[in-house]
Structures are given as structure tokens and as C-alpha cells.
């Protein structure tokens, strides 16, 4: 199997993670500041980063790196608040 098929699958999986996260928050099954929601964002974004770098879509790569970074910061802030 060639690399393009793998990176397409990775990209679709990333998109699915982000859409599930959004749907779960929109339907109030998850809170926007929950760790599960943020982990779905991190995983989805990093999968899309791999896909967009493969296709040299660097603006999308940049957005997804920032998206994942925001989720990491959110998790860290939540842990600080809960432990402090």
C-alpha cells in the first residue's frame, strides 16, 4: 500500500476525532473544558498535522499545531486548578 493511502486514512481519522469532539460538546455529552474533549482535539489535530504536512498544506498544518497546543494548555490549566 502506498503512502498516499495511509496519509489519507490518517487525515480522515483526524477529521473524525475533531468532528466527534465538536458533536459531543454541541450535544452537551461533554463539557468544553473536559479532558476527554481536549484529548479528542489533540489526537485529531495531530493526525491532521501528519496529513497536511504530507500534502504540503502548511497553513492547515500550522492551524492544527496551534489547535493541539490550545488543548494541551487547557488540560494543563485544568490540572493546575484541581491540584492547587
Keywords, please?
mainly alpha, about 0% strand, about 80 residues
Could you walk me through the main structural features you see in this protein, from its secondary elements to its overall organization?
The protein is an all-alpha fold and 84 residues long. It has one domain (3-83). 83% of the residues lie in helices and 0% in strands. It is built from three helices and no strands. It has helices spanning 3-26, 35-54, 58-83. Helix 2 runs antiparallel to helix 3. The protein is elongated, with a radius of gyration of 14 Å. The model has no long low-confidence stretch (mean pLDDT 96).
Question: What's a concise summary of this model?
Answer:
With 84 residues, the protein is mainly α.
- Overall structural class, as computed from helix and strand content, comes to mainly alpha
Helix content: over 70%
Query: Which stretches of 5+ consecutive residues score pLDDT under 50?
Result: none
Oligomer: single chain
Helical stretch count?
Answer: 3
- CA gyration radius, whole angstroms: 14 Å
**Range of strand content:** under 5%
H/E topology pattern: HHH
Strand element count: 0
Secondary-structure blueprint of this entry?
Elements: H1 3-26, H2 35-54, H3 58-83
Amino acid at each position: 500500500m502506498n503512502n498516499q493511502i495511509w496519509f489519507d486514512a490518517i487525515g480522515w481519522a483526524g477529521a473524525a476525532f475533531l468532528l466527534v469532539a465538536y458533536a459531543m460538546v454541541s450535544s452537551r455529552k461533554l463539557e468544553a473544558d473536559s479532558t476527554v474533549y481536549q484529548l479528542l482535539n489533540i489526537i485529531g489535530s495531530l493526525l491532521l498535522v501528519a496529513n497536511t504536512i504530507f500534502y504540503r498544506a502548511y497553513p492547515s498544518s500550522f492551524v492544527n499545531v496551534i489547535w493541539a497546543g490550545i488543548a494541551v494548555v487547557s488540560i494543563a490549566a485544568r490540572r493546575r486548578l484541581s491540584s492547587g
